[in-house]
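Researcher: Go.
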Amino acid sequence: MNADIITDLDYPHGTADGFKQGCNTSHCPSEVTCRTVHTRLAGDWAFRRQFESGMTPLEIVTLERKQAQEAAEAAQTARKARPGVRASGSPEDRLAAANKARSDGLALIPRHTLRELLNQGLTDREIADKLGLTRRQVTGTRGNAGWERNPDRKGRTFAKTAPAKVGAES
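Model: Structure:
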């Protein structure tokens, strides 16, 4: 494309003909470039249908932007209207607050049932077998409730400190 095409007032910018005649860069002075019109006509059936019905490329793009904005607003409204607890604060606090405020009707395992089974000394795996769930489901529900797990019956300890170094003399 040369400068004559850009400055020519009679040149059909923003059209497929403009692209075919040489305006095929991003420097097209039209709001919707000739290259964009050509690409959309070649690959976007809805754009081609609207274009052939008599709409200008600028009208089509403006309509698409308006529809996208309305869809985004509708999605945001739907998110705000969503039932359930949405707490503010840090991500860790939001999860804990939401799970603590959740009623037993929404929980996978009712909290009172899980508490009773944990008080009996059952591990997550034993609770899962008893309720017909997976161990991960029980572990997740217990973790969301903020409760510690029961110790493993195999006698393993889960110390949070580093083991003592061998060979170090005091």
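Model: The radius of gyration is 32 Å.
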